[in-house]
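Quick entry, no commentary yet.
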Amino acid sequence: MITCIEKCLRKGSYSFLFHSLREEEDTVAAAAQLVKERRLKGIIFLGGRMSYPEEELKQVPVPTVLCSVAVEEEAGLGKAASVTIDDEKETYRAISYLIRRGHRRIALIAGHEADTTVARLRRIGYCRALEEAGIPYDSALVGFADPGAEGYTEACGYETARRLIQSKADFSAIFAISDRMALGVYKAIYDAGKSIPKDYSVMGFDGIESVRYIIPPLTTLKQPTEPMARAAVDLLFRQIKGERVCERQLFTASLLEADSVTDRDGSAADREYEHNS
């Protein structure tokens, strides 16, 4: 998304500044300071979380767009322009897909337990899919990252999956809340002397390019990253031109079926790697 945003901005004759923040940093305060230091024309907030965006963004005196920013449900987006997917709904779709394939014991590689951003929304989707299918929630199947570990990484996915496998908990499928974590899950399974999908079906979320080239290719939900990036830049340009923009653009992920998921009875998916909306 960053690459696409930069390309779109340069086409509009704007220079691009990328500023990365640690999880504990105050996003809005950092943005306000950047406006002062760099005389910015506008800001795209990419990822992270805001409790009350309408109030918080009043501190930022330039046009802003929220892209994939998690917002507390009760707070709402107010008048903020935003581009996002419904993380809770999309995860519900993913877990429902695994359930339709016959899996009822589905482990979750869930990120940090204290995470109130995307990880929280994806956990909610996981729980709702189980509940609607009449499957009891089992905390033994939910693997959280160590508090000091960096989230959404291969190492985090590996360590969390390793602990779940060593716990001897009974499960036939693993859903990782990001593809990078799913890559770590792959190694944990193979290090345990198991295989995919014979012993465990594995599914990820995001649709990063590298999951097409691992063995077996990963079944995942792909975010429409380029359309979302272009939409965020378009919303920003409209504001810079003086238009009052407060719309929310909601995008839908695509299911990419591959060979990492098999039916619970053991039959492999007889289909090519494809896009399904």
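second:
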Amino acid sequence: MASDYNQIIKDINSESFAPVYFLQGEETFYIDDIINNIENNALEESQRSFNQVVLYGKDTTLTDVIGAARRYPMMGERQVVIVKEAQEMRDWKNDDKQTLVVNYLENPLPSTILVFGYKYKTVDKRTKFGKSIEKHSVFLNAKKLYDNQVPDWIRNFCKSQGVKIDDSAVMMLSENIGNNLQRLANEIQKLLLNVKKDDAISAGMVQKYVGISKDYNIFELQKALSGLNKLKALKIANYFASNPSNNPLVLTIYSLFSYFSKLLLIHHAENKNEKALASLIGVNPFFVKEYMQAARNYPVGKVVQNIKYLHEADMQSKGIGYATKKEGPVLTELVYKLMN
């Protein structure tokens, strides 16, 4: 049965376990986190050495997995069988092995918790095999978040950790890190070690502990662009160019593409109400005024042109159709073009 990440975690924390979990998809953070929660919560620590089996796809077969799942636990009420990197098993398309799995799914051993971590790929749900997996397991299709979903994810993750976070800190994390949920989770965990009880994570904390420069970051570059502050924008671009390892060009282009795409949405929006625009572009209403100012400074034709410049810079940095140039000159030329 299809389920979502939050519901699965909630059930695990309440010790409500299913016989089979099939976790697939591109967003590996969800897959890894569910597996970690099952590893840490399904059995007492004293039981794990003989009732918890961890297999790896490239080193095992479906026959081995089902054989392990059919064993009974030793001196306990349940056992856990986890298949990490399950997509690496070579016999997924073997008809006999598929039948073996389907037979187990239809009649799983109640004392076994069987978990498949099937990363980056998806099974074909149109096939009998795929339909059986979805029907007879807790089935998760973990998709990458869209950019406009990241701020809410950050807020909800902080809430699950029992801490509040300021809107400015949310935007700084989302703009600088993007939709890499594992890195976001790691950085938030780092912040949790430094936040005082009853305090909220602030932008200042993000700058200090995540290592984002107060004055030279993608958030400040976007603000400079939105206000047509050419001097500041070029200073930030030059700083990025001199520190490429901390400010990869590909991430800067990605963030700026997202930014100007939001401006394009604002230009074409029928409802220009701040609340409606905030929902449309996926930002907190607190930041909508900045985007509206940017939309006034960049007419729709200029926004379209800037998106073209961003595409060209991305191709240029990769040497696709252009002579390869170092990241620094590509970025400074790009920022100049965006504002002229």
